[in-house]
Specification:
The protein has a domain of 97 residues: GMP Synthetase, Chain A, domain 3 (2-Layer Sandwich), CATH 3.30.300.30. 35% of the residues lie in helices and 22% in strands. An 11-stranded mixed sheet has the order 4-3-5-6-7-8-9-13-12-11-10, sandwiched between helices. Bound molecules: zinc ion (ZN). The site of zinc ion (ZN) has 7 residues, from loops.
Length: 483
């Protein structure tokens, strides 16, 4: 990169990006980023001390100012002073999505309650930033998470959560040698028809060095336009919905790969796991590192994959637990992830049930970072299946099975349906290479991994239809959907 380009990047990263974000009340982005670069190497003990101090502040403030928690703590007889170690939060009952849906207004700090009606009545779409927020009386923004099932979760934020997301993204990019202000293409949650006004897109390009691209409901024509724009802009980072990036990668591979002279530095998949076959696809198409952010809109980015492949938790800003929770009517479904936000926030989340299954271990990552590691992240509880003998099957199992070299060219698309009787129905869209060997392979794989009582129905279909969002659902859990 030449000198003027480097200077341009530095101006964006050091001045215009943090400054414009400040006007949305997203403060301290650079200073927090620099602090995280140090804390990610602290000793395990010091990291825990830092967490405990922030947790105690969170609990004290929630007890005093958040009506929902005042009530919950009273019911269980917890006083803020009782939190002597991190594990003491075990006493607080986990917070479910339903709790948030039912009590979201009660979960807002009383000092900001008067802003809730303003946020509710805002004509802007949920999550849209509030210009000049630091100078306003009412700074709350209403946001929603697109609940994968049922009603969306409504929550409120004042810019601080988004600021922390930017900070965590800066940290992640830094892990891959990308500086603040580097060019970035973002395939967002918007479809082509709902792209923001061109002025917004222009400003993000000028002030943040971001190329905004659609990320849902894309077809080949859209991918071709996206790719053209990417090749013109030459971003170091490709960021987006995992499904959009995988789709783009597939398109790039089909159309002969990237031209010489352009390679991004890192691809960041967001909002869904990057499964093995997707990672392979992206690496082949973009010839660079691929990483993944794990998180949720309500609580922000929780963990991200370092260059050595560990999912490091953003431990300075949240406490992540993996606990055994048994869902009603189902036996133990493994370790469920709970998240507690420990930064000052108008709406704290304490022990929020993510609905994902995984484990948490201390770091022994060769990258040298001491941040805890989320391992065996199997995905959504609803997508994980427990066989009749209690084995856990993650969606990745199916990816590996159906993307294996043994069935290459034989299967166009597949869908796994876990039935109410916990048996299997597999829909297959056949490709030209499909033959008896393929069918035998499927039967043998199932026989090896499932108990003999599991019934398998293999069904050949002309087409597997996508959901309304345009995404293909690989796993359908009928038992769970009914619950
Ligand atoms: Zn690492």
């Amino acid at each position: 990169m030449n000198y003027p380009q480097r200077l341009h990047e530095a101006v964006i990263g050091r001045i215009t990006f943090p400054l414009t974000n400040y006007l949305f009340n997203r403060k301290n982005i650079l200073s927090d980023f620099h602090a995280l670069q140090k804390s990610e190497h602290l000793s395990i003990e010091l990291l825990r001390e830092l967490q405990l101090a922030r947790l105690r502040e969170t609990i004290t403030s929630a007890d005093k100012y958040v009506p929902y928690y005042t009530r919950v703590f009273k019911e269980i007889g917890l006083r803020p002073g009782d939190i002597k170690q991190i594990e003491d939060i075990n006493r607080i009952p986990p917070l479910s999505r339903e709790d948030v849906i039912n009590h979201h207004k009660d979960m807002v700090d009383v000092r900001m309650q008067s802003s809730v009606p303003f946020a509710d009545n805002s004509p802007k779409e949920p999550g849209a930033p509030l210009p000049f927020a630091p100078f306003r009386r009412h700074r709350l923004i209403k946001n929603t998470s697109s609940g994968s099932t049922g009603a969306p979760t409504v929550f409120y934020e004042d810019g601080s959560r988004t600021a922390m997301n930017w900070v965590h993204e800066l940290r992640l990019k830094n892990w891959f040698g990308v500086r603040p202000g580097a060019k970035e293409a973002r395939m967002t949650r918007l479809s082509v028809d709902y792209m923001p006004k061109s002025s917004v897109v222009q400003l993000r390009w000028m002030l943040w060095h971001q190329l905004i691209l659609p990320g849902v409901n894309l077809d080949d024509e859209h991918y071709s336009v996206c790719l053209k724009n990417i090749l013109k802009f030459k971003p170091e980072i490709l960021w987006g919905f995992t499904s959009a990036l995988a789709g783009l990668a597939e398109y790039v591979n089909r159309s002969g790969g990237l031209p010489d002279g352009y390679r991004p530095k890192v691809v960041v998949g967001w909002a869904a796991p990057v499964y093995d076959h997707e990672e392979k696809l992206m690496k082949e198409a973009f010839q660079c590192s691929v990483t993944n952010i794990y998180g949720a809109r309500e609580v922000g980015h929780i963990a991200a994959k370092c260059p050595r492949g560990s999912f490091h938790i953003n431990q300075e800003n949240m406490i992540v637990e993996a606990v055994s929770l048994s869902a009603e009517g189902v036996e133990q479904t493994g370790q469920e992830i709970l998240v507690t936000t420990i930064d000052p926030s108008p709406m704290p989340f304490i022990r929020y049930r993510m609905g994902d299954v995984g484990e948490i271990v201390d770091s022994d990552c060769s990258c040298g970072r001491t941040l805890q590691v989320l391992s065996n992240l199997l995905g959504r509880t609803g997508e994980i299946f427990q066989t009749k003998e209690g084995r856990m099957i993650s969606p990745n199992f199916w990816c590996r099975t159906f993307m294996s070299g043994k069935v290459s060219g034989a299967i166009k698309r597949f869908q796994i349906i876990y039935t109410r009787t916990r048996d299997l129905r597999i829909l297959v869209e056949r490709d030209s290479g499909y033959n008896e060997d393929t069918e035998r392979y499927i039967h043998e794989t199932i026989a090896r991994n499932f108990s003999p009582e599991t019934e398998l129905e293999l069904e050949y279909v002309a087409k597997i239809h996508p959901e309304v969002s345009g995404k293909y659902q690989m796993v359908v859990n009928e038992a769970r959907n009914e619950a």
